[in-house]
Batch of 2 targets.
Target 1
Amino acid sequence: MSATRSIIIQIVALVLVVPALAYGVVVVWSTAYPPICGDASGVVGLGLAACWLLDLPCAAMALAIGLRVRSGAARLRQLCIAIAMITLCLPIIATALFQRLHCP
């Protein structure tokens, strides 16, 4: 694979994973500071499920590209791996917060 093609693939992976990262941060924040019990019936849980469905595939793809594409830019490769690992952690953190802080 040529270096130019590898760089383009890495940039595409970053473009796809950054919105997933932003959504994951919003879900973690909304789970850490939930609304008053009964105000948002199921919204936090639904957002958490959507976070798993969005973050997991996008982060796995970015991680796979970061690990497999070696002929691209080394800096982009490290960035793909780092952002993918952070994005993979966000649904886990949000789930832990949801189980601890959610109203019974």
Note: The helical segments are 3-32, 43-68, 74-101.
Target 2
Amino acid sequence: MPITPSVEDFKIITAVCEVRYQDAYLLFDHTGRICEEMRNSFSSVRVNSASPNNTIFQAEEGGFGLELGQSRFSSSKNLDKRLEKFGEYSKRFFDCVTTYLAIKVFTRIGLRVNFRMEYPDLDKAMAALTSLKLTTLPATQRCGASSEPMEIMLRWQSDQIGALLHLKAEKGSIDVILPPELELEKPEIHKSITGLLIDVDYYTVAPVEKSQWDASAWITQSMKTIKKDVDLILAG
């Protein structure tokens, strides 16, 4: 089945926004304050792990990572096509972090988005990847392995912005064991997933002043750029 040359045909499965900065030693004083504010701003917040340099906590809206030199917000559910809600949640988190940690400059800001289109088997996913014409190498067996590539990675970078594009034909599985207190007839879920994965990491190269950056606006604009350029790549 030929791939439809549009990113709209892929499902967004994960999104991560990460900011990096010089080591913020105020983290040692304000981690509790940040967690408390997140508990008042998000649903069902719980701390998964905590140490002086690294705290990970979770809410219904997504996951949070708070570290000495970086912080991130990630989500894998209810992601809209424009990442508008994701952008709102990211702004809420990063505004809190930068306020309490007195961060003035970001050394890197990144948005990583994973898209997937499912296929009935791995051969069809690999054929879809080959059909994109991203390599001029002839289709022949390499090193005794497959004649079609399973993944391709491309990177572009200027002095301001960079992007890493990773396309991969993959076969994976989901294995879930449900709590026994649910008393379900089938307490386990096993599902195979085969498809074409598009992994895009869009990031800043030059330093960015906090006063010039709005997480929500930057994420939605970056998502627009990602979709436009990935569409051009898929269309050949």
Note: The chain has a mean pLDDT of 88.
